[in-house]
Every structure is written in structure tokens, then in C-alpha cells.
Amino acid sequence: LCSGTNNLNQRLVVPKTLIQLVLEQCHDNNTVAHPGLSRTLHRVKENFFWYNMYKNVKNYVASCTSCIARKGFRPSNKAPLQKIPTASRPFQKCSIDAVGPLVTSRNGNMWLIVITDYFSRYPEAYPVPDIQSSTVAKL
């Protein structure tokens, strides 16, 4: 047994030979129905312990053929982080972002175009009905 910070949180230490069985029971079992990485990890961590647990659970869930077939392959949709250029005076460099769709206003606007100054971080928000380039260019 592996004891956590209190005696109520005791977990079984799993030998390498049984890790696969634990993963199958916490992810593939009919009562849990392929819950994904975070829920599978939570179920495993509640009752068990072994070194490299996160890595093993992540690899197991990522290679689950049933999950892949049902959910499909989803490549990361996050752009890589980039350095924000510095500015030496106000409104030398600005960022433009679209927020929405939001609840449609009385004027028919459902988007906000937000322009932020890199120097002061001062934001300006403009309500617009759509985010087509012709609409945004008029700002």
C-alpha cells in the first residue's frame, strides 16, 4: 500500500506486470466507457500508484483504437507561442482579435473586434454584425 498525506487515501502499488490490466479496467471497462485522458487518470490515481503513471495512461488512451475510431484524430489546433513585439510608444503596434459569436444585440451585432495597444495594453472594442474582412476593414 502507498499512503497519501492521510491514512484515508491508501492506494495499491501496481507491479509492471499488472499495469496493462489496471489501464484496461479503468479505461476500457463497460462501466466507464472510454472516458478520455483526464477521467481515466483520475480513476487510476484514486486507487493505484506506479512510477510514470501519467505517461503510461496518456500513451494507453492515445493508442486506444476504439477512442480513435469514435472521436477521430484531432491534431493540435493551438498555434505555437511567439514573442510579442515590444513597442516604444503608444499605438506603435497593436493587436486585433475577434470575440464571439455573442448574443445578437438590438443593432444586429454579434461580434466584438478588440484592438489592443502593445505599449499600454489599452483595449478598444467595437461591436460588429460579422467578422468578414470588409466589415473589419471599415473600422
UniProtKB/TrEMBL annotation:
Protein name (Swiss-Prot/TrEMBL): RNA-directed DNA polymerase
UniProt-listed Enzyme Commission number(s): 2.7.7.49
Highest taxon of source: Eukaryota
A Gene Ontology molecular function term of the record: RNA-directed DNA polymerase activity
Ranges of residues in domain Integrase zinc-binding: 14-71
Top EC class of this enzyme: transferase
Keywords: Hydrolase, Protease
Organism from which the protein derives: Parasteatoda tepidariorum
Keyword Zinc: no
Organism lineage string: Eukaryota, Metazoa, Ecdysozoa, Arthropoda, Chelicerata
A single BP term in Gene Ontology: proteolysis
SUPFAM superfamilies from the UniProt entry: Ribonuclease H-like (SSF53098)
InterPro entries: Integrase_H2C2, Retrovirus_Pol_polyprotein, RNaseH-like_sf, RNaseH_sf
Signal peptide residue numbers: none
